[in-house]
Structure to design on (260 residues):
């Protein structure tokens, strides 16, 4: 049975609901705009899932249209009542940033990658505000977005040899690392894996930037975490440990430092 099957009924229901809410919104946008923005984002997210599951690029493009239709709705709502609707704008921008990054990577289209960066930059700005109010809910999302944008800046810097991108990436990695350490203190089982990834990413950046004296301690700490996690859960963590060890070996080769 095709992987399309689980989506067919969902799409019929979503399309019918979307048509109805669009009609209601035309008559009374003040009342129905929040519902329209929500269903546009939910349907767009569903199209992303279908597009990725079935390698159907057309569904990713349809998702782009829906998420861009929702964006001005959420901007207007967030401007009207930020305490109520900034969370919706944050979610909309997060979906768009991830989608643009996916399309840009698949097509090697720099315009999409630039749009992804812009969406992530705005998402981070909003996420910082939301994390101050709802830290348990939004700090993990903020870390993910900081890392996503940091990795994009890092890639730009590696390709262009422009250290400005390395500087921008470093600021984001440091911010995510500080937040990640705090989250690990409260819930290590949930957040230690992300902290290990952050440490190794930051180590990579510093190594490629020529700051070998600073990269070594980050690799040591990241590898220590990866080793312990692999002992606790080999099936889930041994492969990422192997990748981290290869990464550390590359650091040793480039910097001449011995990694345990």
């Amino acid at each position: 049975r095709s992987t399309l099957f689980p989506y067919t009924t969902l799409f019929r229901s979503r399309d019918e609901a979307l048509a109805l809410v669009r009609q209601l919104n035309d008559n009374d946008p003040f009342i129905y705009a929040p519902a329209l923005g929500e269903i546009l984002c939910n349907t767009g997210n569903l199209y992303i899932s279908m597009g990725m599951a079935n390698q159907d690029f057309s569904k990713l493009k349809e998702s782009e249209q829906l998420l861009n239709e929702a964006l001005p709705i959420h901007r207007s709502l967030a401007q009207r009542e930020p305490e109520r609707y900034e969370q919706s704008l944050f979610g909309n921008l997060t979906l768009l940033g991830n989608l643009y990054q996916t399309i840009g990577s698949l097509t090697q289209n720099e315009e999409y990658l630039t749009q992804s960066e812009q969406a992530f930059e705005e998402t981070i700005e909003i996420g910082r505000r939301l994390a101050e109010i709802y830290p348990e809910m939004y700090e993990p999302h903020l870390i993910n977005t900081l890392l996503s944008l940091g990795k994009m800046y890092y890639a730009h810097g590696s390709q262009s040899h422009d250290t400005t991108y390395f500087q921008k990436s470093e600021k984001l990695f440091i911010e995510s690392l500080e937040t990640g350490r705090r989250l690990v203190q409260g819930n290590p089982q949930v957040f230690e894996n992300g902290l290990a990834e952050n440490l190794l990413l930051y180590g990579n950046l510093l190594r490629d930037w020529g700051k070998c004296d600073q990269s070594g301690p980050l690799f040591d700490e990241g590898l220590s975490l990866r080793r312990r996690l692999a002992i606790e859960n080999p099936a889930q963590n041994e492969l990422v440990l192997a990748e981290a060890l290869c990464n550390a070996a590359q650091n040793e080769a480039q910097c001449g430092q011995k990694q345990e």
Remarks:
- The radius of gyration is 21 Å.
